[in-house]
Request: fold
Amino acid sequence: MSLVKQLIKLNNRKLIAKPAYLSTTARETFKFEELELELNEIKPNLPEDTNKIPFGSLFTNHMFSVEWDSKEGWSRPKIGPLKPLQIHPAAKCLHYSIEIFEGMKAYKGVDEKIRLFRPEMNLNRLYKSAVRSTLPTFDKQELLKCIKQLVSLEKDWIPKSTSASLYIRPTFIGTEPTLGVSTSNKALLFVLTSPTGPYFPTGFKPVTLLADPKFVRAFPGGVGNYKCGSNYGPTVYVNIEANKKGCQQVLWLFDKEEYLTEAGTMNIFLVIKNQNDEIELITPPLNGTILEGVTRQSILDLGLQDPNIKVSEREISMKETLELLEKGRLLEAFGSGTACVVCPIEAILYKDKKHNIPTMSNGAPLMTKFADKLNQIHYGFIDHEWAPIVN
Reply:
């Protein structure tokens, strides 16, 4: 059994739902019905041109927050004015990266209704990340109700555009002010919202990836499949190295076989014509080093609905990738994620040689098909169970 297959087996084991370090007498979750509201009457200040709203730099008037400590459990949740956090300089999140987050979006549809996109998947992932980071667990549906309330309050901050959205950033940090490397006995869960314009204001912009096996994003037994801040900070240096070589992102490789794992902060997909002349959509399997992307799963689900596509979650190495490219069987490559939805890949720089991929020259039919379908769901062109309406 290969190392990757062993990882997949290990990753399929369920985490304990209630960590042993939690108190059994404290309040085990916060309740939406106890939500306290303190409203800020400042009106939204959105630029008329949504293309001029850079990602993650503009924030709405309000934030959600709720505190936890090991003795009392969860406090009453609050939505109040956006303000700086008051945090002790010895807080564990600042020293030992006891911090996790999520990324999700709300969309203003063509019918003026506000929609989320598969929010239960984000909250399931946040819950798993909390358990792995020894942060307290919570009722996911109660948090979802609170997030919906926050989005409803900030509905005027959501751009009226089928290429813009309201980015939602749940964040969970350990705040106990002690320097011991141990579980944090205090924590803070908060949610920010940020209007954002289109990821590609002038249409799809293909990227070139640096594939260098000396750089590793995640390792077996680590936290590569959780949304921990510690997964992201160390990648900035590598991305700068990629930029120096004329690349925009990094293709993360793994193991001596140099298996493809992720592209920058995105999941990666290849579209090939396989040996049976079938169109095959390939993405690496969830082996414990790869993030369980919501957009990734949605693309897989859409692909499985198409009888003309073979969908595969399997290992694919750099060697196989380059062989497919040489034989003219690699048709498209693209990344997926909440921020970009999909992002075309036009080349890979590997061992100082640039390998061009015909993603855009072929018209990227499959990537574009997925992008269009997801856009229709996000903005209410079609009713879909993945897009619950925020009342």
In short: The first helix runs from residue 3 to 11.
